[in-house]
Recover the amino acids of this structure.
């Protein structure tokens, strides 16, 4: 699942990004309201974390513009303002929840899970053959056996399953999974494909992850 953070404090962005990626979310970020509004308009996100005090466009303007464009992505507003009036204003213009700073990361995660659960169009479980991912609880099973995955392994497997039967190049995978971009390993996708195969295919006759030589990878139960 993919989350957009719109926040002008780089330290907060880095803190949230690190924590969310450890929880298997893919994260994009922006430090001003204008760019954040653009990202939220051209990309699909499962949730937006939106600060109110932003340069260029403040969070209230961003939220109002998104809802006016009929973009219904869940929005949790993050702000140092905790007055009842500010909360009411944020909720009235379309925010789904409101969390005052400072907040605990555990509480933020709980609120994120609530929003993802309550969205009727949010798919909480995806599967292929006897492999299933629980996107909310970040768990994986194959033939009812638990599989322990790292955050990046989970994110890659989620992306593969959501694009089942489609051949994906390394470039496409790297572009889709922005958390891989900071790696200095030129073969990072190959490394994670190898790790996934050891975990989800090695002990099963039906191998799900396929290499299409010279093109890329796909997951398929054929």
């Amino acid at each position: 699942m993919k989350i957009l953070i719109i926040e002008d404090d780089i330290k907060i962005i880095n803190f949230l990004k690190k924590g969310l990626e450890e929880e298997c979310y893919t994260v994009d970020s922006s430090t001003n309201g204008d760019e954040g509004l653009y990202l939220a308009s051209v990309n699909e996100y499962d949730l937006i974390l939106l600060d109110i005090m932003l340069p260029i466009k403040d969070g209230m303007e961003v939220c109002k513009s998104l809802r006016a464009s009929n973009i219904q992505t869940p929005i949790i507003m993050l702000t140092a303002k905790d007055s009842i009036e500010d909360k009411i204003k944020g909720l009235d213009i379309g925010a789904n929840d409101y969390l005052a700073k400072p907040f605990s990361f555990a509480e933020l995660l709980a609120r994120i899970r609530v929003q993802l659960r309550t969205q009727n169009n949010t798919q909480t479980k995806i599967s292929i053959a006897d492999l299933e991912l629980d996107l909310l609880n970040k768990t994986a099973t194959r033939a009812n056996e638990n599989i322990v995955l790292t955050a990046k392994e989970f994110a890659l497997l989620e992306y593969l399953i959501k694009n089942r039967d489609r051949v994906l190049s390394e470039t496409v995978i790297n572009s889709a999974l922005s958390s891989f971009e900071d790696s200095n390993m030129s073969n990072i996708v190959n490394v994670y494909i190898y790790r996934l195969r050891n975990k989800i295919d090695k002990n099963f006759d039906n191998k799900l992850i396929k290499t299409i030589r010279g093109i890329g990878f796909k997951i398929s139960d054929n």
In short: The chain has a mean pLDDT of 88.
